[in-house]
Amino acid sequence: MNIPNTEFERYYQQVRARQKRDTFSWSLLLLVLYFAAGSAAEFNLFTIWHSLPNFFDYMFETLPTLHLSDLFADSHTKGSFAYWGYRLPIQLPLIWETLQLALASTLVAVVIATLLGFLAANNAWSPPPLRFAIRVLVAFLRTMPELAWAVIFVMAFGIGAIPGFLALMLHTIGSLTKLFYEAVESAQDKPVRGLMACGASPLQRVRFALWPQVKPIFSPTALCAWRSTSAPQPFLDWWAQAGSARS
């Protein structure tokens, strides 16, 4: 009885030694690659630590300096709300335009991505060539950054809100479609089989078996997409205005 145990122990030690050797080798390789990449990117921990107080200084300087006695004074009095937000008449309409463009592009993208998501899912009974074509298309859409799409559409439509809208919409369609068809594929198939046994059509199976399962996933994903489209939109607006001023 001791001989098999001894052979197993020897085999176990060999496996453990090989695992430790592989772990050490891969860790050393990753460490070398990390320092090589840091050197190429001029990454320096000492510089970050030395410059870290500047970050907090910037955050502190962005806070308004308000005085209780002058809160409601005019825009020429330091310490008042009006002095701190003297550009609000200019900024607020631009912020509103940004939110409108982000919301409009997200709404259109959600509708299109929902249809494409069901067509691209493996369990939604669409033809395999169509599923493959949709997946390749949305992979291309989400690979292209918003700024690249904006450059293309500016050449076609000129400076304005339309290039930003189309750029955000296409990129969002690519990202949401992938998330949506993965959610559809993760849905349980028992309700689907039950409706198939009752003679339901593919559209009815999607409507009454798949959609109730994926709707709680689609809604928060769409809200996250709206937040994501709101982030690059100010940069696209600034870029469009800069191009307009230069021209």
Describe the protein.
By secondary structure, this protein is an all-alpha fold. The protein folds into 2 domains: 1-43; 92-230, MetI-like (MetI-like fold). Helices cover 80% and strands 0% of the residues. It contains 10 helices and no strands. Helix 6 crosses helix 7 (161-185). It is flat and about 80 Å long. Residues 242-247 have low confidence and may be disordered.
Gist?
This protein is 80% helix and 0% strand.
Provide the fold topology.
Elements: H1 2-40, H2 45-62, H3 81-84, H4 88-120, H5 128-143, H6 146-157, H7 161-185, H8 190-197, H9 202-230, H10 233-246
Helical residue percent? over 70%
- Termini separation (Å)? 89 Å
Biggest β-sheet strands, sense, barrel: none
Apparent shape = flat
Question: What series of H and E elements makes up the topology?
Answer: HHHHHHHHHH
Determine the mean pLDDT. Answer: 83
Query: Spans with pLDDT under 50 lasting ≥5 residues?
Result: 242-247
- The count of domains is 2
Let me know the CATH homologous superfamily of the largest domain.
Answer: MetI-like
Q: What is the count of β-strands?
A: 0
Radius of gyration from the alpha-carbon trace, in angstroms: 28 Å
Subcellular location: Cell inner membrane; Cell membrane
Membrane topology: Multi-pass membrane protein
Transmembrane segments: 26-49, 94-121, 147-170
InterPro entries: MetI-like (IPR000515), MetI-like_sf (IPR035906)
